[in-house]
UniProtKB/TrEMBL annotation:
Compartment list: Cell membrane
Coiled-coil blocks: 196-223
One of the record's GO molecular function terms: efflux transmembrane transporter activity
Membrane topology value: Lipid-anchor
GO cellular component: plasma membrane
Pfam family, one: OEP
Record keywords: Coiled coil, Lipoprotein, Membrane, Palmitate, Transmembrane, Transmembrane beta strand
Source species: Chryseolinea soli
Family: Belongs to the outer membrane factor (OMF) (TC 1.B.17) family.
InterPro entries named in the record: MdtP/NodT-like, OMP_efflux
Protein's name according to its UniProt entry: Efflux transporter outer membrane subunit
Length: 480
């Protein structure tokens, strides 16, 4: 009768555990990502699948000095090396997760001594059992043990395996983060390198312009001696020369800072950056093949990183759900134990073994488990929005840079004509001034306009080269 009652209690307890395990909190809806992209970019042929992103960066950049800087940066850049260690950390996390669903086995040995009090349960045993004096326990009582022990959480609901899979996706995400850093690092070095070459050209143009203004100043001084102009004209030309000579130091400071920025990206202390700035205006602007927007899903490493983060977030929901189910732990041990070392490995007298299984199910106060589940679901929805935002941002970046390249090309052509016209107007204004058919302000303003137009032309050329680099980066090139 008693056995039947105990069996009923056990059966009722198991039913309660199963019912509780099935009573998950109110189901939360997981959000699915939208992977659709437009068929093409507005300014290119949507059927052209040739993509510049597939070109290796050593082929995309032809300047040997720039290639050398990038190659050095990929070995010495501190941020890049920090990310490499993040990858190692993520890889170790995968290894740790893998070990969690395998049995833990250890070997151990112990030695101890014990002297129980006479008026304790253990100390009174010998007195109550009337054990003979020559067969009593040694006092104090030594104890020696040697054995193996094992423990294992049976992964019934795949909680541990899913956790390992989520760690694997996190590792892959970290790897794509490294690739994304490489893409941006290459682009930043290239843009800074072209900025440095542009500054060199601005400096050279300014020096030549100062020579022209110095010659004009001498002409004005001679005209003053001939009483054709006043002292005001001389002072205005002198001020213009001094202003431009002062501007030389501003450009030189910008050159120093740009060189140091490149050296920082390369991972070295400041030194001269080798370059051939005389070829700056002749640098080719090869045609860019944007391919189709759907290729961004494979070429853009930030999109791939967001995709792996999303996959990990989905699996983490499964891990969170598994916390509501019963968990089964099995433990076992085998070894020897004796109070004297000469009996320690006596078999079977000193042999001992244990086997135990624990089935645990959370019944009351499951708020922490619920919170973990709700958080995992919210993170999955967050990861979906992050993925869709990354795809949208990638498309817009490409579209903007393609439009930028086209508009800069048109602007550069017109500015080249402007520079040619203003350069000719300098000689014309000087001749007219010497023949008293133009005043000194016309000469001064013409020189200013010519200098500004040359600066603008250099700036537009730099923007063209930067746009070429940026569209390469936006398409997902540089990391392979």
């Amino acid at each position: 009768m008693r056995t039947k009652r105990i069996w009923n209690y056990v059966t009722t307890g198991c039913i309660v555990i199963l019912v509780t395990a099935c009573s998950l909190p109110s189901s939360l809806v997981e959000k699915n990502e939208n992977k659709k992209t437009p068929e093409g970019y507005k300014i290119n042929n949507p059927q052209d699948t040739v993509n510049t992103a597939k070109v290796n960066w050593k082929e995309f950049f032809t300047d040997p000095n720039l290639v050398g800087l990038i190659d050095t940066a990929l070995h010495n850049n501190q941020e890049y090396n920090i990310v490499l260690q993040e990858i190692n950390i993520a890889r170790n996390e995968v290894r740790a997760r893998k070990g969690e669903y395998l049995p833990f086995v250890g070997i151990g040995a112990s030695a101890g001594v014990e002297k129980p009090g006479k008026y304790t349960t253990q100390g009174a045993v010998e007195e109550n059992l009337n054990i003979k004096e020559d067969t009593r326990f040694p006092e104090p009582l030594p104890n020696y043990a040697l054995g193996l022990n094992a423990s294992w959480e049976v992964d019934i609901w795949k909680k541990l395996r899913n956790a390992k899979k989520a760690a694997m996706y996190h590792y892959l995400s970290t790897t794509e983060g490294r690739n994304f850093l490489v893409t941006n690092l290459i682009a930043e070095i290239a843009n800074s390198y072209y900025e440095l070459m542009a500054l060199d050209n601005r400096l050279e143009i300014l020096k030549r312009n100062i020579e022209i203004q110095q010659n004009a100043l001498e002409i004005v001084r001679m005209e003053k001696q001939a009483a054709k102009v006043t002292e005001l004209a001389v002072r205005r030309f002198e001020a213009e020369v001094l202003k431009n000579r002062s501007h030389l130091f501003d450009i030189q400071q910008s050159i120093t800072e740009t060189e140091n920025r490149i050296n920082f990206l390369v991972g070295r202390f400041p030194q001269h950056i080798a370059r051939n700035s005389q070829t700056f205006t002749d640098l080719p602007l090869d045609s860019i093949h944007a391919g189709i927007p759907s290729q961004l899903l494979q070429n853009r490493t930030d999109i791939r990183q967001a995709e792996f983060d999303l996959a990990a977030a989905k699996i983490n929901i499964k891990v969170a759900k598994a916390n509501f189910y019963p968990s089964l732990h099995i433990s076992a041990g085998v070894g020897y134990e004796a109070f004297n070392t000469k009996y320690l490995i006596s078999t079977p007298q000193s042999l001992l073994y244990t086997v135990a299984g624990d089935l645990m199910q959370p019944l009351i106060n499951r708020n922490a488990i619920k919170a973990y589940y709700y958080t995992a679901t919210s993170k999955q929805i967050q990861a979906v929005y992050n993925y869709e935002r990354t795809v949208l941002n990638a498309y817009i970046e490409v579209a903007n840079q393609l439009s930028n390249i086209r508009n800069l090309s048109r602007s550069y052509d017109l500015q080249s004509q402007q520079v040619a016209a203003l350069t000719q107007s300098i000689d014309i204004s000087v001749r007219l001034f010497r023949s008293a058919r133009a005043d000194y302000m016309e000469v001064l303003l013409t020189q200013r306009d010519a200098l500004d137009s040359k600066f603008e032309l250099i700036e537009t050329k730099k923007q063209q080269l930067n746009a070429k680099v940026d569209v390469y980066r936006a398409l997902g090139g540089g990391w392979n």
